[in-house]
TrEMBL record:
Sequence ranges assigned to domain Metallo-beta-lactamase in this UniProt record: 77-178
Name listed for the protein in its UniProt record: Metallo-beta-lactamase domain-containing protein
Gene3D superfamilies: Ribonuclease Z/Hydroxyacylglutathione hydrolase-like
Region forming the signal peptide: none
Alphabetized InterPro entries for the sequence: Metallo-B-lactamas (IPR001279), RibonucZ/Hydroxyglut_hydro (IPR036866)
One Pfam family cited in the UniProt record for this chain: Lactamase_B_2
Length: 199
């Protein structure tokens, strides 16, 4: 179930926060609870099947937030925080519902599966151009996460192209947090963000 928080009202000319997922790393329902119930059974997982997912507060995808930022001239910028294992499901359910046409940039909080395994599916919602004249989607992350993603998704990382090679539409760019516990501000699509680096 996705929740929307309007920053200043609720019309299409205002900014909003859309909670795409608020579940744990395995999402809810947890398959083991359903196929091999414990005694007593897990009530939350069974309740997550009692209603359709879009009306069920117990059916939850991986934690993810979409910032719909309305600029002063009315243009919208869409900033996604984390794209985990359930990213494709959240797109099919909530992008249509909230009329989200694209993602302009992505912030990854860490390199675990619940935050990054949906990156490959981001390509399926990006604009397409036969002349490859569309800017790639920037992804902001720590150097530690970047090192991990270079192994997981080598084809998404910006590398020098050979003659005639297709341009990849998703480019991962490195954003390094200064120090383990530093709070570092940075600008992203006109918004100032603060990230607290912690373990």
């Amino acid at each position: 179930m996705a929740a929307t928080v309007s920053v200043s009202g609720g019309s299409s000319s205002e900014s909003a926060l859309i909670f795409m997922g608020t579940g744990c790393s395995s999402a809810i329902p947890y398959p083991r609870c359903l196929i091999s119930p414990s005694h007593p059974p897990c009530h939350v997982c069974f309740q997550s099947l009692s209603l359709p997912p879009n009306r069920n507060p117990n059916y939850r995808c991986n934690a993810s937030l979409l910032i719909d930022y309305c600029e002063s001239h009315g243009n919208h910028r869409y900033i996604l925080i984390d794209a985990g294992k359930t990213f494709r499901e959240t797109v099919l359910r909530w992008f249509l519902h909230h009329q989200i046409p694209r993602i302009d940039s992505i912030v990854l909080t860490h390199e675990h599966a619940d935050a990054v395994l949906g990156l490959d599916d981001v390509r399926s919602i990006q604009p397409v151009s036969p002349t490859n004249d569309i800017d790639p989607t920037p992804v902001y992350l720590t150097q530690h996460s970047m090192t991990s993603l270079e192994t997981k998704f080598p084809y998404l990382v910006n590398k020098k192209l050979k003659e005639g090679q297709e341009i990849r539409r998703l480019i991962i760019t490195t954003f390094v947090i200064n120090g383990e516990n530093a709070i570092t501000p940075f600008l992203l699509q006109g918004l100032q963000h603060f990230i607290s680096g912690c373990r």
